[in-house]
Amino acid sequence: MSIKQITSLTNQTIKDIRALHMRKEREATKQFLAEGLKIIIDALDQGIAPQILIYGKDADHHPLLQRAIDETLKARGQVLEVTRDILEKISRKENPQMVLAVFAQRIRRLSEIDPDSHEVWVALEQVRDPGNLGTIIRTADAAAIGGVILIGDCVDPFSVETVRATMGSIFALPIVKCTREEFIADRGRWRGSVVGTLLTAKHDHRSAPYKRPTLLLMGTEQSGLTPDIANTCDLHVKIPMRGRADSLNLSVATGIMIYAACGL
Amino acid sequence: MSIKQITSLTNQTIKDIRALHMRKEREATKQFLAEGLKIIIDALDQGIAPQILIYGKDADHHPLLQRAIDETLKARGQVLEVTRDILEKISRKENPQMVLAVFAQRIRRLSEIDPDSHEVWVALEQVRDPGNLGTIIRTADAAAIGGVILIGDCVDPFSVETVRATMGSIFALPIVKCTREEFIADRGRWRGSVVGTLLTAKHDHRSAPYKRPTLLLMGTEQSGLTPDIANTCDLHVKIPMRGRADSLNLSVATGIMIYAACGL
Ligand SMILES: [Co+2]
Ligand SMILES: [Co+2]
């Protein structure tokens, strides 16, 4: 394979790539779009090559771009050199990144993970904000927990905005998706502490025993955990609030919980 | 005073309000724009009335809207009933909030705060992201620390995006602005622990003594604290990272630091 030059916006591959801004298309193709050389190098460092690498024909001939080209071709991916116009359309920005890539999605089922393989895991029910989800994946990676489990109707972990907020951590740890019913059916495999965070809990987050493996459950930005999921917990905790604000941003709350549960 | 009806986009007051999307105009007028009834009620609950209240003529006649109207008029503010067109232009959105308000900015100088009045404070050097800043102000409010000190060239705390992320906490605690030189000149008044967060620090954030009053110093998203500011610290700490990601989102890191320093 070699590098292909594309100048036409009506090229079918370019159309397919642009369609990855739509969740439906991402789910149908099991692909996603990542922007910028940094995240692509992060992926390569983790042994993951793009399916398609796209760069602007006036991109800097940085040695890292050459590495991305070489490794993409070696993995039998496509490499496309495109015009600035095409980059702008693909990225939907006036100042697009000069390098973009399409990767295969990797989503796990609950049955594919072993709770006992890590001390701490986090599950998010109905998380709505792409930036929050991306930031939580980044924190989960920094603390080296087992993975992030998405319960119910969550925002797509492979949206451009979420992927950007992960800062490369999207490739670093398992992302698991399940329905509420699947989570409840799987509950028996979690033999450590299953800890729900609720604003109404009586115990502080620091007083929990966090028996291993610990599963932290965080609810939606608006209304917290649903009763069905809250009922599966061994205990409920809250992060103390002593000012006027009665809640924290979800990614901040999850960060505080992850670090507390890890004893870090 | 009574309610004024406005239907023309060329009305001067409407033009002035729209100009508040620009930092220069916010700084010249010392005003800012807040969106949504919730944040306006948050302000009223804290004894702060809008200078201008704006609502759509087809807004729900919610008792809280009536309260906002009454309290704005009582405080000699203006109340404007406007068309949906005008709301869209003011908010720059297709689905605008039906209630908006203009408030006076309140920014403190370092000399106006008493370090000994609270156990913990946070200072941010050159914070760049409006969402991060708003989220940090919200966390600072939840933990009831003394205030948020902005050092050097920071993003505007009164941008629409920052104000939105504060979820009403923008009114709850002092926001202080200073130059790097002013901060260094004021350093002597901080007689507890001045703790800088640096990725290169040797000590963990949990091992710090946090002598009162504690001032936490957080650097910019890209490159951390500048040497000049890092040199003013009594000690440097880092939040442990044990995965692949070598840093946290700034608002998450600041949240973990604030909760650790407060002993919460
Ligand atoms: Co691991
Ligand atoms: Co206070």
Automatic annotation (TrEMBL), chains A, B:
Pfam families: MRM3-like_sub_bind (PF22435), SpoU_methylase (PF00588). SUPFAM superfamilies: alpha/beta knot (SSF75217), L30e-like (SSF55315). Keywords: Methyltransferase, Transferase. The keyword tRNA processing does not apply. Residues 33-109 form the RNA 2-O ribose methyltransferase substrate binding domain. GO terms for molecular function: methyltransferase activity. GO terms for biological process: methylation. The keyword Methyltransferase applies. Transmembrane segments: none annotated. InterPro entries: Alpha/beta_knot_MTases, MRM3-like_sub_bind, Ribosomal_eL30-like_sf, rRNA_Methyltransferase, SpoU_MeTrfase, SpoU_subst-bd, tRNA_m1G_MTases_N. Belongs to the class IV-like SAM-binding methyltransferase superfamily. RNA methyltransferase TrmH family. This is RNA methyltransferase.
